[in-house]
Amino acid sequence: MTTSKPLISVIMPVYNGGSTIRQAVESVFCQNIPLELLVIDDGSTDQTSEVLSVYRNRPDFHYLKNPHNIGAAASRNRGVQEAHGQYVAFLDADDWWENGKLQIQLDTLHETGRVLCSTGRELMNYDGTPTGKYIPVKETVSYRDLLKHNSINCSSVLLLRDVAAEFPMEHDDSHEDYLTWLKILRKYGPAAGIDRPLLKYRMSKTSKSGDKKKSAIMTYKVYRYMGYSHMRCILYFISYAIHGFWKYR
User: Fold this and answer.
1) Both ends of the chain: CA-CA distance in Å?
2) Does the reported pTM lie above 0.90?
3) Binning pLDDT at 50, 70 and 90, where does residue 247 land?
4) pLDDT-based confidence at 240, cuts 50/70/90?
5) Cα 199 to the center of its chain, rounded Å
6) Can you tell me whether residue 126 is helix, strand or coil?
C-alpha cells in the first residue's frame, strides 16, 4: 500500500464481475509502484460490491458507482477524468497482470519517448486456465500497422493521462478502444510494444469481439469514424481480414 501521490491511475470498469475481479485487483496492488486503482461499477447487480468491500479502507483504492449503466467506454472515460496519476492504465475486471508489468512499461515509455505502450497477451480460458495461445505485439506499432490489425489490447495499455483525456473513447457501436488508439497514433506517432505475456486475457464468448460477424461490422465502422471513404474502408478491412482477427503464437 502507498500513500504517496500516484504515478499511475489504473482504471477498471466492471459490470457483474464479482467472480473475477478480486484476481484483477490483486494483480494491480502487486505492481509495487505508486498508483491508485479506480473501479468504476457500471450498475452491477451481483456480488461485485461485496467482494470489493475488503479494499474500501485503502487510500489507493477508489470505488465509483455509476448512477445507471453507461457502458465500459464511458466508464473508462469517467475514470480518466477522476484520475490523479501522470499515466493511466486500463484493466478489465476479468483480466489480470503479471508482477512488474507497469514498471516495465514505464521504463519503456521513458526510453522511447512515446506516449502509449502495450504488451503481448496470453489467452486464458474463462476459468483462468491457460489455452496455450499467445498474441504478440511488435516492438514498434505504427499507425499503418494498426490500420491493418489491432494488436493493442485495452487491458495492456499504459499511456499519458493527458493524451487519454484528449482522446476519450466514443462510438460504442464500433471497437471504441481501437478507434482511440488509431487517433492517438495518428497524432503522436508509433506506440511502444513489449512482446511478453504481461497481460493474462480471459476469453469470454459474450465480449464484443467474440461474435466475428459483429466484430467485422464494428471494425468497418472504426475506419468510417476515422474519416475514410467507403472504398478505402473496404480495402483496409480486407487487409485486416488477411492479417486475421487473432494472431496466435
Assistant:
1) 36
2) yes
3) low
4) confident
5) 10
6) coil
